[in-house]
Design brief:
Strands 3, 5, 6, 7, 8, 15 and 16 form a 7-stranded mixed sheet that branches. Strands 11-10-9-12-13-14 form a 6-stranded parallel sheet, sandwiched between helices. The chain contains 10 helices and 16 strands. It has 2 domains: 198 residues, Medium-chain alcohol dehydrogenases, catalytic domain (Quinone Oxidoreductase, Chain A, domain 1); 135 residues, NAD(P)-binding Rossmann-like Domain (Rossmann fold, 3-Layer(aba) Sandwich). The protein is globular, with a radius of gyration of 20 Å. 25% of the residues lie in helices and 25% in strands. Helix 4 packs across helix 5 and helix 7 packs parallel to helix 8. By secondary structure, the protein is α/β, with parallel strands linked by helices. Bound molecules: nicotinamide-adenine-dinucleotide (NAD) and zinc ion (ZN) (2 copies). One zinc ion binds next to loops. It catalyses: a primary alcohol + NAD(+) = an aldehyde + NADH + H(+); a secondary alcohol + NAD(+) = a ketone + NADH + H(+). Belongs to the zinc-containing alcohol dehydrogenase family. Pfam families: ADH_N, ADH_zinc_N. One of its GO terms (molecular function) is alcohol dehydrogenase (NAD+) activity.
Length: 342
C-alpha cells in the first residue's frame, strides 16, 4: 500500500510503498477514507533522533471503512464507516474506564502510542486500529468533512468543556490562533457557551476566517491585543483564554488578558512556558495544559457536527500531494485543515 512516512530526522515526509498490514488478534483494519494533517506533526518532525520509531507513517486524525477483522475482533462489521479515537490508553485503568484514555497513566510504560504518534498512522491506504473500542460510528457524516473532528474538533472541545463553568452569558473567551483547532474552537464556543468570542491571529486571512465562523471580534495578535481585550471587557479581562499557539508571545498575551479567577487553557505546544503564581497571574486564575479529549467527548463533537452547529473548513489533497500540504502547513497558509484522501 501507499503511505506518507516521516523516514529520518530532518527529512521531509515522503510517499512510499510499504506492505499492507494484516490485523492481529483483536485488531481492526480500516480502508482509510480520509486523514488530517495537524500542526503537531511538525513538532514530531522537529524532535531529535530516538524520540519516535522511524520510519513512521504519519496521521493521527483518521476515518475509514472497516476492511478486515483480526482474530477475536467483534462489534463492528466489514463496510462500517468509522472514526478513530486516537488517544489510546491501556483500556482498564480508572482514567480509561471513564473514557479519558488521553490521560491514561499506564499507556507510556506499556508502550501504547497513538496512530501517527508512535504507531503507524492514518496517512496511508490502510490503518490498523488496536481495539474496536477506539472506533466510533461515523454514520452519515461525510468522511472528509468529519475526519478532523477527531483532533481539531475534539481537542478544543475538551478544553472548552473543562472550562464550561467559567463561560456563562456575559463572559468573554479569547481564542489565540485561528488554525485547524482554533477555527473549530470558535464554533464550539458559539454553540455551547454564552461567551463573547474574541479571536487573535497574526494573519489577516485567519482573522477573516475567525469572523466567518462566528467570532464576535478578530484582532491582530500583538502587544496591542491585551489593551483591546481589556477595553472590550470593561477592564475585567477574559474569563477564559484558549491559547492554540503556546509560544512565549501568546502566553504573555494570555497572562495579561485573563480575568481574576479566570482560566488559561494552553493547547498549543509552541514551546512557551507560563509561570503561574501570586505575582505573575491574576488572583485566583488557573493555568492548564490539556491533552486531546475523551472518548465520550468525541461522540459529542460528532453530534455537534451532525446537528450542523460546527464544521471544519477543509483543503483536500491526494496522498501524492501530502508533502506539499505539509509545506503549506509549515508556511501557515492552510485555511482550516488539510485533509488527505488516499
Ligand atoms: P495550525 O497551524 O493549523 O494553526 C496555527 C494558527 O496559529 C495559524 O492560524 C497561525 O497563523 C496562528 N499563529 C501563529 N503564531 C501566532 C501568534 N503569535 N499569535 C496568534 N496566532 C498565531 O495549527 P493547529 O493544527 O491548529 O495546532 C495548533 C497548536 O495546537 C499546535 O501547537 C499543535 O501542535 C497543538 N495541538 C495540541 C494538542 C493537544 O492535545 N494539546 C492537540 C492538537 C494540536
Ligand atoms: Zn493533532
Ligand atoms: Zn489506562
Amino acid at each position: 500500500m501507499r503511505a506518507v512516512q516521516y523516514r529520518s530526522v530532518g527529512s521531509e515526509p515522503e510517499v512510499v510503498e510499504i506492505p499492507t498490514p494484516e490485523p492481529g488478534p483483536g485488531q481492526v483494519r480500516l480502508k482509510v477514507t480520509a486523514a488530517g494533517l495537524c500542526h503537531s506533526d511538525e513538532f514530531v518532525m522537529s524532535l531529535p533522533e530516538g524520540s519516535f520509531p522511524l520510519p513512521m507513517t504519519l496521521g493521527h486524525e483518521g476515518v475509514g471503512v472497516v476492511d478486515a477483522l483480526g482474530p477475536g475482533a467483534t462489534g463492528v462489521s466489514v463496510g462500517d464507516s468509522v472514526a478513530v479515537y486516537g488517544a489510546w490508553g491501556c483500556g482498564t485503568c480508572h482514567a480509561c474506564a471513564r473514557g479519558a484514555e488521553n490521560y491514561c497513566p499506564r499507556a507510556s510504560a506499556l508502550g501504547i502510542q497513538p496512530p501517527g504518534l508512535g504507531a503507524p498512522g492514518a496517512l496511508a491506504e490502510y490503518l490498523i486500529v488496536d481495539d474496536v473500542r477506539h472506533l466510533v460510528p461515523l454514520g452519515d457524516l461525510d468522511p472528509v468533512a468529519a475526519v478532523s473532528l477527531t483532533d481539531a474538533g475534539l481537542t478544543p472541545y475538551h478544553a472548552i468543556v473543562s472550562s464550561l463553568g467559567s463561560l456563562p452569558a456575559g463572559s468573554t473567551a479569547v481564542v489565540i490562533g485561528v488554525g485547524g483547532l482554533g477555527h473549530v474552537a470558535i464554533q464550539i464556543l458559539r454553540a455551547i457557551t454564552g461567551a463573547t468570542v474574541i479571536a487573535l491571529d497574526v494573519d489577516e486571512e485567519k482573522q477573516k476566517l475567525a469572523r466567518e465562523v462566528g467570532a464576535h471580534r478578530a484582532l491582530h495578535s500583538d502587544d496591542s491585543a491585551v489593551a483591546a481585550i481589556r477595553q472590550l471587557t470593561g477592564g475585567v479581562g477574559a474569563q477564559v483564554v484558549f491559547d492554540f499557539v503556546g509560544a512565549p508571545p501568546t502566553l504573555e498575551i494570555a497572562r495579561q488578558s485573563v480575568a481574576q479567577a479566570g482560566r488559561i487553557e494552553i493547547v498549543g505546544i509552541g514551546g512557551g512556558t507560563l509561570a503561574a503564581g501570586f505575582f505573575s497571574t491574576p488572583m485566583g486564575a488557573s493555568v492548564r495544559a490539556p491533552y486531546w479529549g475523551t472518548r465520550s467527548e468525541l461522540l459529542e463533537v460528532l453530534e455537534l457536527a451532525r446537528s450542523g452547529a460546527i464544521h471544519v473548513e477543509v483543503e483536500q489533497y491526494t496522498l501524492d500531494e501530502a508533502p506539499e500540504a505539509y509545506r503549506k502547513l509549515h508556511e501557515g497558509t492552510i485555511r482550516g485543515r488539510a485533509v488527505v484522501v488516499p
